[in-house]
Structure formats: C-alpha cells, structure tokens
C-alpha cells in the first residue's frame, strides 16, 4: 500500500497543481518587466480574460498531456524489454525522477521548465506502475488490493495536502519542496521495509535468473546419477525462460477485453478532470477559482480511494457498465458547462465524487480479473501490458480537452 501511495503521489500533485502551474507562468509573463523576485503568487486572477469561464490561456490539459504521454510511451514499449532491468534499479530510478520533478516545478521560471518537471513525474509514475503491477505476481493476490488502496490514497492525500497547504497560506514552491519526502519514503519502503520472496530478482535481470535456475536444474540431474530417465520428461515440453516476442503479442491480443473498457472509463474521466473541471467555475462564493479546481481534484481522488479499496467487498466483472456510466457523466457535465444550469458548486462536488468512484472501481476490478484469469506464465507480463489501457484513455482525453477548452474560452 505504501509503495502504491508513493508511486502515484507526484503524478497526482502535478495534476492538482495544473491550474496553479499555468497561472504562475501567466502572471510571470504579465509582470516580466518588474518580476525579478522568485516569489510569485500563484493566486493571481485572469483579470484580462473576457471569457465567462475565467480561462487560463493554456488548458490544464496541456499539463495532463505532459503528465501522461511519457507514461503512455513507457507502457507501450517497456513490457517488451523491461524484464532486462532488475526491479531494484527500476525503483531507484523512479524515486530519483519523482524528486527531480518536484525540484524542477518548484524552481521553474518558464512554462517549458514546469512541463519538464511534470514529464519527469510522469516517467516515475509510469515506470513505477508497470513495475509494481508486475511485482504483485510474486506475492499473494491480496497484495493487489493493497496496491489499489495505496494508489487511491495517493490521489486523496496528494490532492488534499496540496490543496490544504496552499489554503493555509504556503506558497506552491514551499509546498512542492515539502513533498520531496515522498520519494525518500518510496526508497526506504522498498529497500528496507518490503520483504521480498526468494524468487524475486532484485539486482539481476530476468534472463540471469532463468539461466541460474536452468543451471541448477541441470546440476541436480547430474547429481542424481541414476541410469533411469528423469520422470519430469513432460516438463521439458513446457516453455521456460522469458516470454518470446510472439508470445507477448498473443497475450496482448487476449487483453483487449480488459483494456478497452478501462480505456473508455479513463478517457471520459480525464476529459471531465482536465477538459471541464477548470470551466465549472462559480463566481462570488467562498472559494476562489483556483481553490475550486483544487477541491474538485481532492473530491475526485476521495472517490478513487473509496472504490479502489472496495475489492474485498465488491467485485465487478462487467467493467463495460462502468464505462457507460462514466460516459453519461461526462456528457451531463459537458452540457452543464455549455448551458450553466447547475445552481451550486455542491452539485458539482457530488458529480466529481461519483466520477472518482467509477474510475477507481474500473481500475481495481480490471487488474483483479486479469490476475485471476491469466495463466501463471503470462501473469507478470499481462499485468504490465494491461496498464496501457488507462494511459491510452487519458492521452485521448487530453487531446480532446485542448480544442474543447479553446472553444469555451472563446465564448
């Protein structure tokens, strides 16, 4: 659970900070002639914006794309080669990338520098998710529930801490620097707290481990110097060693029944989060625009945490039902943005919480049934490969959100 929390933390914080990241750079540009100081207030409003939606010039979807495209690239290609990198090296790399992302964004002086920091957070989260999902096959299946709860908790704790510390008066820079403790916790929890089974290669590649096992088996056969044939002749017909490229492609074809519904859920979910949330703004209430956006993200993550922790009590095999419900939710909120018929922010809070419940349930149930229904030999690769479903959906959502943002901001 702790590793799931640490892995997704930077990714979540970058999405929660998306509005502030863009507003910070806009305020820098507007005051470039006088802003020699590094202490820039993230809460500057868009007073020059004539749109009824109080838009940033750049959609928060731009931050989403920077936060998901590297993850998508990793999840598309890494399953074919990642077995060559030991788990210990992967986790160390992820912790370094997460720490670097916090430092870059907190000290950024231009949009490109902030986006680069977001990209580093994406690399850390994407490689970490793929690796830790594969890692669950070395433990009992109950570990998957802990992973789901941890990633859900990352969303809630990350969004809540960011929102709460900003609301308490800390600057975004100080807030992000405080969060550097999370990559350190990831390092400690994996290398010093996690009790790994003997079958898990930490600092050796999978090929090295397989070669060692084969050599050990051969030595045992030589030591048992009986003239009779070994009774395990049938096991010689079973494939050993890493999966071949053809086997991996075959496994991927069988995963589409899981990947497609998951991708649809995340497409509609992140279209709401990064395409519509910023536009669901209520004037003259107790929360500023930036504060409303942060608390939308926090409530969404609360829903994700609750549903990702529900596997013990509720299992949903037909994930496509969740994709239909999430699609309807996105259509309703799109109409709400266009015609502004929602009378209060509390209704938006309810719909955002419901959105998080659907998304979290789709995620944890998808991987539960993949783990349950996949052959033992294919399970490690399947868990890694199927993780591309949510990233594909999120990427398409980001691409759709950009023109939608431009359209509404032109009204």
UniProtKB/TrEMBL annotation:
Protein's UniProt keywords contain Transmembrane helix: yes
Transmembrane parts of this sequence: 58-78, 90-112, 118-139, 151-170, 176-196, 319-341, 347-369, 381-402
Region of interest (Disordered), residue spans: 222-242
This protein's record includes keyword Transmembrane helix: yes
Compartment list: Endomembrane system; Lysosome membrane
Top-level taxon of origin: Eukaryota
GO biological process, one term: regulation of intracellular pH
Membrane topology qualifier: Multi-pass membrane protein
Pfam families: CLN3
Keyword tags: Lysosome, Membrane, Transmembrane, Transmembrane helix, Transport
GO CC list: endomembrane system; lysosomal membrane
Main localization category: membrane
Family membership noted in the UniProt record: Belongs to the battenin family.
Name the record gives this protein: Battenin
Organism: Oreochromis aureus
């Amino acid at each position: 659970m702790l590793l799931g929390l640490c892995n997704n933390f930077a990714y979540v914080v970058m999405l929660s900070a998306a509005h502030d990241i863009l507003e910070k750079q806009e305020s820098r540009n507007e005051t470039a002639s006088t802003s020699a100081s590094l202490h820039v207030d993230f809460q500057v409003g868009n007073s020059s914006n004539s749109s009824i939606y109080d838009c940033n010039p750049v959609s928060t979807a731009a931050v989403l794309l920077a936060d998901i495209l590297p993850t998508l690239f990793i999840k598309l290609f890494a399953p074919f080669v990642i077995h060559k990198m030991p788990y210990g090296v992967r986790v160390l790399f992820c912790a370094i990338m997460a720490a670097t992302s916090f430092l870059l964004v907190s000290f950024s002086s231009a949009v490109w520098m902030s986006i680069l920091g977001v990209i580093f957070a994406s690399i850390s989260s994407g490689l970490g998710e793929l690796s830790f999902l594969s890692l669950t096959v070395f433990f009992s299946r109950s570990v998957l529930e802990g992973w789901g709860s941890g990633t859900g908790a990352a969303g809630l704790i990350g969004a809540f801490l960011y929102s709460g510390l900003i609301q308490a008066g800390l600057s975004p820079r100080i807030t992000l620097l405080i969060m550097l403790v999370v990559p350190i916790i990831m390092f400690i929890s994996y290398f010093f707290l996690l009790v790994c089974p003997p079958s898990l290669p930490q600092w050796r590649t999978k090929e090295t481990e397989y070669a060692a096992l084969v050599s050990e088996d051969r030595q045992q056969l030589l030591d048992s110097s009986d003239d009779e044939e070994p009774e395990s002749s049938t096991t010689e017909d079973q494939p050993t060693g890493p999966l071949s490229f053809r086997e991996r492609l075959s496994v991927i074809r069988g995963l589409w029944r899981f990947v497609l519904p998951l991708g649809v859920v995340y497409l509609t979910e992140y279209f709401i989060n990064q395409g519509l949330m910023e536009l669901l703004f209520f004037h003259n209430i107790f929360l500023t625009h930036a504060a409303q956006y942060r608390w939308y993200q926090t409530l969404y993550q609360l829903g994700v945490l609750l549903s990702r922790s529900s596997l013990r009590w509720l299992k949903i095999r037909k994930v496509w039902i969740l994709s239909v419900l999430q699609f309807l939710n996105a259509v309703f909120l799109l109409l709400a943005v266009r015609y502004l018929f929602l009378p209060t922010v509390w209704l938006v809070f309810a719909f955002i919480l419901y959105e998080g419940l659907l998304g979290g349930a789709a995620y944890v149930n998808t991987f539960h049934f993949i783990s349950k229904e996949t052959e033992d030999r294919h399970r490690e690769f399947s868990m890694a490969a199927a993780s591309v479903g949510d990233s594909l959906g999120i990427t398409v959502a980001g691409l759709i959100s950009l023109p939608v943002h431009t359209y509404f901001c032109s009204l």
